[in-house]
Predict the structure.
Amino acid sequence: MAHNVLPQPVQRLIDEFARLPGIGPKSASRLTFFLLRGAENQALELASALQELQARTRFCSVCFNITEMDPCVVCEDSGRDPNLLCVVEEPLDLLAIERSRAFNGRYHVLHGAISPVEGVGPEDLRVAELVERVQGGTFREIILATNPTLEGESTALYLQRRLAGTKVKITRLARGLPIGGDLEYTDEITLSRALEGRQEFS
Amino acid sequence: MAHNVLPQPVQRLIDEFARLPGIGPKSASRLTFFLLRGAENQALELASALQELQARTRFCSVCFNITEMDPCVVCEDSGRDPNLLCVVEEPLDLLAIERSRAFNGRYHVLHGAISPVEGVGPEDLRVAELVERVQGGTFREIILATNPTLEGESTALYLQRRLAGTKVKITRLARGLPIGGDLEYTDEITLSRALEGRQEFS
């Protein structure tokens, strides 16, 4: 009789890998067999890292940055300008801006950008929380630091409309950023220039 | 003060993902943030699948196929021809041959192919175990079913030399046109092999 199925634990791991973005069935098999053959305990190390991620990290209840403590260290830092708010798509974007050392205000992490193609609407992002925070806060300026991509621009435009009634000055990063690029990997000088040259949203 | 490091559990998972083949630092970040945002408990599901893989699977001590029981179901199947041995690179190759239903003998899984470029030598594969198995066994024919690639061909050549003293008949899979293929689009090397291996019309 032909023996034509993988052991269930092998098939299960292939299926789990294939659920991740950018990993197809072939890559999922390759990763699984790499771990099967592999380097002592690498599968268990990865499992433990996944469990630790789930157990020890959360979103900051103020800015939605990823953090071990709530509120996060940025929100807890009293040396930061409470009148300035920078809105980013992802936690890694926040880190990139921090590395530029050109910003000393507060942040708000959206966790994505509006993308009709991928079915991501404003209700999937931290937009309601942003509007509430701005309405109830002391912010004088909001920098929309979304990515210089189609999705990022749409998101900025949408936010500008949603925040139009609040009388807060709305700016966005200067076009020092190359269109189609990725904020996370932009060098520090370019990011500094983009922050310095920010312009009023019109 | 600039806050410019990721929480340690996040960085740890990025590092673990980046150790996997074909996943660079950027993909590793993307996977990690996908899981952070993600679908309820997907990180824990993946962790559990990894632990189950480690706990419930092993290599068959006879043929080195991946299995939950040792020996594996193929080795335990008394209905299979004990004189015929098929040598493959990977467990997935074994499954592909099983799906063809054209083979009813035994298997031996090498777990790779000889590749000087990637630093894989015969000592990294289950070659010694193969030689021992053939010398101590009742095999009359060994089919070297390695892949039709440079590495697979080198491996087959090496095995043919190592097994030359055993008087067992050594064969390999036919090279030729794939069924359903198109002669016009077939590459030159495949066409050369198909011509060399031409057979009398019967």
Q: What stands out?
A: Chain A touches chain B through 65 residues (CB under 8 Å). Helices of chain A lie at 8-18, 25-37, 42-56, 73-76, 91-100, 127-135, 150-162, 188-196. DSSP finds eight helices and seven strands in chain A. Residues 146 and 153 of chain A are 7 Å apart (CA to CA).
